[in-house]
From TrEMBL:
One of its GO terms (molecular function) is hydrolase activity, acting on ester bonds. CDD domains: SGNH_plant_lipase_like (cd01837). The keyword Glycoprotein applies. It comes from the Eukaryota. InterPro entries: GDSL, SGNH_hydro_sf, SGNH_plant_lipase-like. This is GDSL esterase/lipase-like protein. PANTHER family: GDSL ESTERASE_LIPASE, ZINC FINGER FYVE DOMAIN CONTAINING PROTEIN. The lineage of its organism: Eukaryota, Viridiplantae, Streptophyta, Embryophyta, Tracheophyta.
Amino acid sequence: MAVTTFSFLAFFTTLLLSSPVISTVHFNYPAIFNFGDSNSDTGCVIAAGIGGLLDPPYGQTYFHEPSGRFSDGRLIIDFLSHAMDKRFLNAYLESVGVPNFRRGANFAAAGSTILPPTQYAFCPFSFGNQVAQFFSFKARVLQLLGGKLDKFVPREDYFRKGLYTFDIGQNDLAGAFYSKTEDQVIASIPTILQEFENGTKKLYDQGARNFWIHNTGPLGCLPQNLFVFGKEKSDKHGCLRPHNHAARVFNLQLLALCRKLQHEFADARITYVDIFSIKFDLISNFSRYGFEHPTTACCGYGGPPLNYDSRISCGQTKVLNGTTVTAKGCDDFTKYVSWDGIHYTEAANHHVWSQIPTGKYSYPLFSEKI
Ligand SMILES: *[C@@H]1O[C@H](CO)[C@@H](O)[C@H](O)[C@H]1NC(C)=O
Ligand SMILES: *[C@@H]1O[C@H](CO)[C@@H](O)[C@H](O)[C@H]1NC(C)=O
Ligand SMILES: *[C@@H]1O[C@H](CO)[C@@H](O)[C@H](O)[C@H]1NC(C)=O
């Protein structure tokens, strides 16, 4: 472990002193086990067949076809896993082809919540289910080890040495706004985080030691929420104040939980990553980062300012009011922060990723991790 800490620190020190060539970031972990929602789903929901298929132009930027990801290209988790070992993380449910789980597995599912799914939920794989899937995965791997599938599954020690990454909670909050007031949404946050705490404790009890926890982004800036909840409650950045306030309260409580967990799990390393601030800075100061459209969907229908219409999603063709219309992609994907009104473009995901190694957005700071 000491070696890992040293490399991690040395690496980031080097990075801060030299130019930030992100592709050389070396997270010194042998595997990644990821839990989350569509922000980090690399094919679960599509493999499970619960969301139908994604149509082009999903995937167009990097994979040149829909890749099971809710973006035109790569997600933050892709940049992270690529920086680690130049490979993408396979979805746990992926069964076609030769999924390789040697360097970890991805349990994230689009639409998932931390709390158990309600009867109306689109995705059945909430955080507790994802943790249960991880335990099935681990038990099966431990049975298989020593046989001919060794090169496709993690080594036993990878479960302790691996990085456990989390990006979940956005759907708990965004979904709650459809039936609750802002105060009620905020009052529900401790229950949501209790469920999250229970899952992380189960993982710790089974040997997880390296936790990498993303907080939730500025939900109030997503074209989908602006479309549904109107712009009258928006702030000077054009984002919904109640949604962003709930996200901030959630994040403060999540940070407190991370500190508590760090205290309880003395031999673990808990890193909280402030994705909210990176995304909100990107949306507020978009032109500085080379973007032109902070809250307009690149792929959608309806035109500016949102180019989002909840009746038709990116890539679909439908008859609306007797006219056949298609939700098409924009001309230059790299100028938009929002891909489809809910998810970010590869360009935006890359920007978020590029800010992580600066260490400014992680707690404790990388330099404090001795
Ligand atoms: C979390 O775990 C505690 C103690 O094991 C249990 O009492 C509680 O019901 C659990 N909460 C949730 C939300 O699952
Ligand atoms: C936008 O940039 C300014 C100048 O660097 C900074 O002070 C401000 O905090 C940024 N906005 C956000 C929301 O981060
Ligand atoms: C459909 O018609 C309604 C009522 O005339 C109008 O408000 C709406 O904008 C139209 N939608 C489209 C997609 O043209």
